[in-house]
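User: quick one
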Amino acid sequence: MTDSTGFRIDVNGVKSVSEGFRMYIETFGCQMNVNDSEVVASILAREGYAVTPHMEQADLILINTCSVRENAEQRVRGRLNVFRMEKKKRPGVLIGVMGCMAERLKEQLLEEEKAVDLVVGPDAYRELPQLVRNAGTGQKAVNVLLSREETYADISPVRMDRNGVSSFVSIMRGCNNRCTYCIVPYTRGVERSRSPETVLDEIGGLVAAGYKEVTLLGQNVDSYRWKNGNTVSFPRLLETVAAISPALRVRFATSHPKDMTEEVLHVMAAHPNICKSIHLPVQSGSSRLLERMRRRYTREWYLSRIDAIRRILPDCSISTDIIAGFCTETEADHAETLSLMRQVQFDYAFMFKYSERPNTPAAGKMKDDVPENVKSRRLQEIINLQGELSLESKQRFIGKTTEILAESISKKSPDQLSGRNSQNMVTVFPKQRHTTGEYVQVRITGCTPATLQGTAE
Ligand code: SAH
Ligand code: SF4
Ligand code: F3S
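Assistant: Done. Structure below.
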């Protein structure tokens, strides 16, 4: 631990000159958490902490957590067991839990996980230096206050993505929707947007550092709004980001079917560097269930959004999120989900079994009444169908040439590059003379349900 003069205080309290501290950060959950971990790294860097990829070398082990489903929390508990063992070996090491599980469980986490020294909610990261100092003196530290304003707008995140090509940029935090199954509004607080200036500054910095792609992040980007004289809405922000450089690819997530406007689609159509890929979570194909989920759209409305995308952006890929086995879901509701999937022909989907989350509206008012084996079977049917749809979607590219932004050396072979096309499809191809960060025209020769394969032209 450092005291205010930057000296290291050993566990026995003796000061020694420090070569700097090392922090190890593990991130679970959504892309926003990836970005938050980078914000945390930046806040602690000012205190002399450098990121290490080796847990065994860290003075501070942080885990950024997710509460969205029970199995997300179980994975975190598993990792905490590993960290506890490390602390047995090296009692001086501090362990901190950040993010949504910290927010949900608060002090309870300290009782349940004795090895944990600090618990920090998503809006309290500026307090981390103080909390770490307190924890270093043996005081367990908790700060889980949510804020109406915090967006960490002025903090320039320390990029921990190793490819140096593609990065996430948060444009807003929190969520004002109250989908009945969802914990996010309670762990992340109310929705707030970040000023366009700070967003543009951050992206300008990324471009100067050689980045070629940014993904603008928010739980519901369509409700982005910044008022300061003029109002800046999401389409305006998107347009301004796209104008930074034609060589910068722009992506965004997540769109909400109730709020996505045709204006956004027209902005996408007007800018070749805005990637033609939309993540539009449907959750269920049954209007009755959508109502119980409080999604505030119907099956018909969702399909009308799909029609608008197809009309304005004929080459756009569409991905989604689907929940199987939400409260009262019948076989007929489930069949409607499958039929909607077929009708839309999603290119990709994240598919989940409903997991009741404590203190959500659904947990309070509805019975989690679909038996586990039925949930599993329905999820499997959804996964199987999506497997077919994903394969068909990839097969449509065979024989065509598509522009890939090369992001990394393929995990499977050092001679292959891996990147994505505008439609967000992972593509691998022989490296030849190309390198990461380059746009490459790739002729697609084959595919699996997950990946396109091809050769550079
Ligand atoms: N803001 C985004 C998604 C946030 S959470 C949106 O509105 O769509 C990511 C996904 O997790 C959700 O789309 C949903 O499919 C899933 N999810 C959220 N809560 C869940 C729960 N209790 N059980 C299962 N899946 C859940
Ligand atoms: Fe959760 Fe709904 Fe908000 Fe998405 S929009 S984060 S699903 S409450
Ligand atoms: Fe999980 Fe929190 Fe993201 S619950 S999905 S880490 S906002």
